[in-house]
Design a protein that fits this description.
Layout: H1 14-23, H2 27-39, E1 42-43, H3 44-51, H4 55-68, E2 71-76, E3 79-84, H5 86-93, H6 96-110
Antiparallel strand pairs: 1-3, 2-3
Length: about 110
C-alpha cells in the first residue's frame, strides 16, 4: 500500500523531498519518469513494453515512485494508468533554481 508523502501544511518536509531524490536515484526509475514526461499517462503494460522490462520489475519501480509521490496510479477499467505528479515534483524541487539565478545575477552585477 502506498503511503502519502510527508508534508507540512503547504510545504514538503526535507524528509519527503529526500525521498523523491532517493526514488529518482535508480536509472530505471528515471527511464519511467522520462517516458511519462514524453508520452503522458501510460498503462503498466505500455511502460513495460517500451522499457523492455517485465511487469513485475516495472511494478516494483512504479511502487517506489508512487510512495515518493513522483507518480500517481489510477485504475481505468481493467488498466492501471500511471502519470507524473508534476505539481508535486515542482514542489519537491522548488526554491532552488530561482534562488540560484538571483545569486548568479548578483555576482554579475558586482563584477
Amino acid at each position: 500500500m502506498a503511503t502519502m508523502p510527508l508534508r507540512k501544511k503547504a510545504k514538503l518536509t526535507a524528509e519527503a523531498r529526500a525521498k523523491v531524490f532517493k526514488a529518482l536515484s535508480d536509472p530505471r526509475r528515471v527511464d519511467i519518469v522520462d517516458s511519462l514526461a514524453k508520452h503522458g499517462a501510460q498503462s503498466g503494460t505500455q511502460l513495460a513494453e517500451e522499457l523492455g522490462v517485465s511487469i513485475a520489475l516495472l511494478c516494483h519501480h512504479w511502487e517506489v515512485l508512487a510512495e515518493a509521490g513522483v507518480v500517481k496510479k489510477e485504475r481505468v477499467g481493467q488498466l492501471r494508468m500511471c502519470t507524473l505528479d508534476l505539481a508535486f515534483l515542482r514542489e519537491a524541487t522548488g526554491g532552488w533554481l530561482p534562488a540560484a539565478k538571483r545569486k548568479r545575477s548578483k555576482r554579475r552585477d558586482v563584477a
